Amino acid sequence: MKSLAKIVATSSTALLLSLFAAPVAVHAADPGVTDTSIKIGMIGSLTGPAAAWGWPTINGAKMVYDAVNAEGGINGRKIEVVVEDTQCQAPLALAAAKKLVHRDNVFMLHGGSCSGEMVPVRDQMIADKVPTMLLVATMDQLVTKKPNDYIFRAFLPGSYDGTVIADFLSTVPKVKKVVVVGHSDEHASARYGTLTEGLKKHGIEMAGLETIEVELTDATAQILKVKSLNPDAVVMVARPAPSAVFLKDAAKLGLNVPMVGATVVDLQDLINRAGGIEPLKNTYVVSVYKAPLSEPAMAPWVEMLGKYYPKDKVQASAFYGTSGALAVVEALKRAGKDLTREKFLKAMVDIKNLDGGPMACSLTYSAGDHDGCKTGAVWGVRDGKIAVFGDRWK
Amino acid sequence: MEIAILLSVGISNGCLYGLVGLGLVLVYNAQGIPNFAHGELFMAGAFAAYTGNVLLGLPYGWSLLFAVVVAGAIGIIVELIAIRPISMHRSLGRASNQVAIVLATVGLMIVLKGLARIPWGDSVRNLPPAFMTETISIGGLYLSTQRLLIVAVTLVLVVAISLFFARTALGKTMRATSLNITGAKLIGINTGHVYSATWGLAAVCGGIAGMLAAPLIFVHPDMGTRMLLKGFAAACLGGFGSVSGVLVGGILMGIAEIFFGRYFATSMIDIFAPIIIIIVLLFRPQGLFGSRQALRV
What we know:
heterodimer; B: about 300 residues
């Protein structure tokens, strides 16, 4: 009996101690944080039609985390990344995000290859109060709709393309009338509003909007229609393959006015697809990067990719996710040793003029503005090679 | 001049649609099913030509031959390992059998596309045009040499296939099998071989179309999807029972969609094919050059 009483007393004491001790352990750090690690969940279209935006952009961010780990981590903690596939589909993206947050207990989310897939994920992350850095999802509303504390972006938002293009065109000599050629999808529509406003602000007439579809195989009808409108310049808001088809056919059919493309395409990639620089000698493209990938300014990032992901192709999309990872690392450092989501979010909005790495922009956040990157650079072809023009025609 | 440009592009686009439609018609006439994986045979031909021309450095002619062999081989292999086991399944009735084969072609479409992604990924690749001189001028009208090649090859292929069915023993056995499979079996025709040959020939048509189109539209695993729809529309318009009718259907569609895009709305170009399919099925299901089949009971 005496021993039974002793067992009961010991058990009760242990239970009481555990009741008091457990909350201390739970509240010491938020999910995904231990003394030695910080777990970050990443989602993207690893497979499916948009797979080109999956691993390349994820690895462009992961290489930053790998580099940080190689230097000992942040405040003694290594970054541990868990990656899930979304196939660019909203239901899969939502399931992946929920799995990362509720089963893998990640500290934060860094992901999104497509804007559409991130719409429900965004709402879920706000509801779960999980800090989220968008990877390459450009839809403005993902950040700006219903201002909140949790969603951030370090990539040029879609609508800013339109502003950059309109501002650039206003500096090109003798441009008074333009025709826009682009897709009819959400991706392109996000750019039309600011483009129209920007052109109007600069007194440039928008003579027409001609549709080209993503799987364009021939642009003769569009080019002849554009030529009939007699524009001084053409704006292209189209993906790489249809843009290349359009440019090749435009060169054949004698449409020789300046062409300005949105960030949807990369100039070097377009040159490769068009089979040479000739069809693009009067083409300009808004780029998120500060310089072409072959220039010294990009060398550190190209080397970093080669070091951690030697099999990855050095291509336009390779560094789209890098600036987001740089912002996350900076905020994790600033949040200090006692890392919590609250401290991380506070550190994010305190970031001002952080070097965007490969990006043309520097990153600045505030409590009311979570879009950190707002400038791009226009590139064009001069003397047979790619030249960076900045925001003005030269 | 503008009309001439639109006509030249419309005709060459239409020839591509006709070639793709031709492959669909061959399989449909043999087994009574639409082959939803035909777009992937188009893609396979383009990748085979890319491998031959760009990676192996073969001249264009040899690359064409390589693409023909690869596409034909894929067609035969697909028939042998995926279609024939289902068509020979005795527990299924004929109608269920056909449904099962159609579903198999849908599965093949996904599988072939997925298989292409393993070595090639999602990157878009360039296949150079057949000729160094990309355009020639005829009476002030600049014509793409690649488009002229498309028209020439298509016409030659359609004539060759028509002669093949009319003059050769294999062609005649293929026609006999498509008309009456039971009768064909009774007189000793190996219908399995006939189906393999049909799939091989259909794949060759798709592969050649893919190779010819690749310099214009780039090479990537999803390149066949849109072309499949155009091929279906060409076959519907021309009629599933006529080889030359499919070509005419394709050319009519190519011309109509480009004129429609130029003078009406460019946004309508891509919905033209499904509209044609619906209209033809509603008002003339046998197509422009097909004939209604009477069934004696």
